[in-house]
Amino acid sequence: MNRLGFMQGRLSPVINGKIQCFPWSNWKDEFPIASEGGFYLMEWTLDQENLYENPLMTEKGRTLIKGLKEKYNIKIESLTGDCFMQSPFYKSEGPQREELLKDLINILKSCALVNIRYVVIPLVDNGRPENKKQEALLFEALLKLNEFLDANEMSIVFESELPPQELKNFIRKFPKKTFGINYDSGNSSSLGFDPAEEFDAYGERILNIHIKDRILGGTTVPLGTGNTDFKIVFKKISEIDYKGNLILQTARADDENHIGALKKYKKFVHNIMDRL
Predict the structure, then answer these.
(1) Which is the CATH superfamily of the domain at 4-274?
(2) Most buried one in 82, 121, 157, 163, CB count within 10 A?
(3) 43: part of which helix (H) or strand (E)?
């Protein structure tokens, strides 16, 4: 349970109706709220809009992050790069692609400076490659980063909408030491995938896990109210002897009691694991 954390922003008010975005006004407040609520692991979020104003991307901001981590005993070991989904470099051309690739390199360097080990690239929604050319551009650009990732003990982890066998074939193209899979329980249930088949196909490549619930073909809902078969998910997590983090990327609280919602979700996970 000490590997169970939360997605940054889940302890802040909802912004413009978005379920997830960087909490500009409240990001520092989430540290004491989390600590007081018994959470000691956070996954950072990064949007393309105002990218270089995000505290992760500035020297002053990184100093603040390090101080808050130490003061409140909170680890930040992973980052979800929504920016990569919002502006995929492999769907751009010419100078714009080069600028987005520079952004990627700068993000990785900033992560290394605050000991973030796992960088999630969401290949979902607008981030999903639409053809072989885009896949080739993605593969070519990321392989060039392998030496940097290896030297800094970092990994790029893909979140994908591909069916299990296709995702297995996709991840095989990348070095095992520095590239892996971010498994998202809610996205998989929304797509109608069988979690047992997913873990059997590529379980050994899973380096980070997002815990959420979704309705088949629908949106995120509170844990236990959607179509995610958590009993099988956690059974398979146990079977592969998974040692990584579990990040609550859960539905937002309707009553604004965000820490209360996370505590409820934490108990939900705990109860399932106790019954395994």
Answers:
(1) Divalent-metal-dependent TIM barrel enzymes (3.20.20.150)
(2) 157
(3) strand 41-46
